[in-house]
Amino acid sequence: MDTQLDGLAAALTPSRPVHVVAPAGLEAWLGGLAPEQAEFLRASGFKARAQQIALLPTADGVSAAVLGLGEQAPDSPWAYGALPLALPEGSCWHLGAGADPQAATLGWLLGAYRFRRFRSGPYHPARLLPPAEAEPAIATARAICRARDLINTPAADCGPAELAAAVLALGATHGATTGIIEGEALAAGFPALRAVGLAAASGREPRVAVLRWGDPAHPLVALCGKGVCFDTGGLDLKPAEGMRRMKKDMGGAAIMIALAESIMTARMPVRLLLLVGAVENSVGPLSFRPGDILRTRKGLTVEVGNTDAEGRLVLADLLTYAAEQAPALILDAATLTGAARVALGPDLPALFSDDESVAAAFCNSGMAAHDAVWRLPIHESYGSWLDSPVADLVNVATRPMAGAVVAALFLRRFVPSDVPWAHLDVYAWNDQSRPGRPEGGECQAMRGLRDGLAALVRQFGATKPRPDALITH
């Protein structure tokens, strides 16, 4: 899927400056302007409030613009997110005094993004001529907007085949090795994942997309993404309102794809394994049923308490596969539970890890990048809620509480205790538009995860190389 960055100007395009000022520095900044411009801003009520934008007039028209920071940090991309739609349509600008080059470029491009694949008519946001040092921000924006496109695309146009194809295309761009596990190999090696997607229509069969990249001497980092391209809930059918946004149920996979892109673009010193479980949880003659007992790749049996708790079944097989490769770290992301949203709301992904250094790295980096996650506990005593009288465990709790914690406890059963692991329970959606964050799919936490991973890699050091032959059973 090709993604064009709206709001990006071509080199040498004539442009005007956008200056950035905080309330505390406003009077000093006004003192450096031509008297008539300073008076114009004072008379028009410019107070440098957050997202407040004004144009500076001259006899020939407009000479510059000024953006107020309010109490926002100048290194937050969200401080700049309103600019592309607030400045005159199609106009071109460059960063002036007070702007953080990386944050401003990223915020501008994320604010200019709109999902327009199925819309006609022109769209001409104001464009930014980025500074030379902003290339990392442009690459990050491209990865995030690609993930947004994947999440926003309707399920009819982004099914398991298309999601897997996005992994293959990413691999081709970066010289990675890729493959698809499907059919008999999927049935033998990923039985729980296959069961979730077995009822999908022809052409939308379940599969696992695999991407491998990096130097064998570097530590192996495994990324696992829940790629449920549409979730009806299965036989435990969701109500209509609950199903309305379920094209976004592959949001965890989209975030892991974007993270993989960011890792490879930055040439991070890791050996990368990306696993995307691409399925559709449909209703049909082959639907798995409440009360069924599924086998997993690990050999554990799972009683199905609810077919709408399918994402953890997908991840169970992916986590087992990842653990077999002896990684230095496993990270998974999934739109897994409504309970995490009840606890933390839509903007704060829930982070689970029983490794203190891993949890600290991701929490600290997320805060620093203005891309926060919030750690929730893996509370041992709730583990008994997953007990089943007929199988090794059940896929939903026996009590209607702590749903996000119990889901994390389920996943941890598929990760060896000596392998560092973190699980991210995300919403992957903006319910309403805000500067830099338009309504629709969102690549939550990716920047903080990338920066936290970079910090962790320095702790890992080199590991003994391991053959990376693709396992197909």
Task: Describe what this molecule looks like in 3D.
The protein is of the alpha/beta class and 473 residues long. The protein has two domains: 16-130, Leucine Aminopeptidase, subunit E, domain 1; 142-460, Aminopeptidase (3-Layer(aba) Sandwich), CATH 3.40.630. Helix content is 33%, strand content 19%. It has 15 helices and 18 strands. The protein has helices at residues 26-31, 35-43, 83-86, 101-112, 135-152, 160-174, 183-189, 191-197, 240-243, 251-265, 311-324, 338-344, 356-368, 403-412, 446-460; strands at residues 16-21, 53-58, 61-68, 92-95, 127-128, 177-181, 207-213, 220-231, 271-281, 293-295, 301-303, 329-334, 350-352, 374-375, 393-394, 421-425, 429-430, 440-441. The strands form four sheets. The protein has an eight-stranded mixed β-sheet, with helices on both faces. Strands 2-3-1-4-5 form a five-stranded mixed β-sheet. β4 (92-95), α4 (101-112) and β5 (127-128) form a beta-alpha-beta unit. The protein is elongated, with a radius of gyration of 24 Å. Mean pLDDT is 95; it is low at 464-473.
